[in-house]
């Protein structure tokens, strides 16, 4: 079984700073890491690999420094690490990113399952997985919290739908699934794998390697139909709060009073 995992390198959002003058995220202000949701995708892939004697290929698109993220992925159980990096890829929105990743996967080889996390913590769009599946013309499922079964021809998954309901979905392979954090618990890499990850070769691909599958106009800033004009960081507003403990009369009285003050009632 051949499993492809899509990962993204993101800054530590608890430490990253925002350049309020330029309206952008200062990614150099914090250490980079694998997107936390993608760790669950990687663990799901490694679990499938261990069950079915498979192979896991991890792909990311980003600057050359993202090689560190791929080495971390190898330490956690990946077999092959691929970095899509080129000046033409910079400034890509989700669609241009998806087209570039899909171009490499088309060039790659036969694959059975593509797995990604449900979203990234920096962009929070949850679009790349679905877009990649659409470009590759394969079925996909989002918010997967369990892989029920998988065979040579199909995969059955449980989806966490709206309002707490569940869906059981069966799809023909190859297919893409986007997983939630509920699907597993991440295992820490062993010291042996960490040491080995320092010596592995990370495969690097640029536009020239994919030119038969994608044009320059479809990549990076040129190929992005959406543009981020500015990032605005909202100012924190401190509001007074009141705690009601077993005081239902007081609670409802104050709520009604507030609604009257706002002229809602």
From TrEMBL:
UniProt-listed Gene3D superfamilies: HUPs
CDD domains, A to Z: ETF_beta
Domain Electron transfer flavoprotein alpha/beta-subunit N-terminal: 22-214
GO MF assignments: electron transfer activity; oxidoreductase activity
Keyword Oxidoreductase: yes
Keyword line: Oxidoreductase
Residue spans crossing the bilayer: none
Protein's name in the database: Electron transfer flavoprotein small subunit
Lineage of the organism: Bacteria, Bacillati, Candidatus Lithacetigenota, Candidatus Psychracetigena
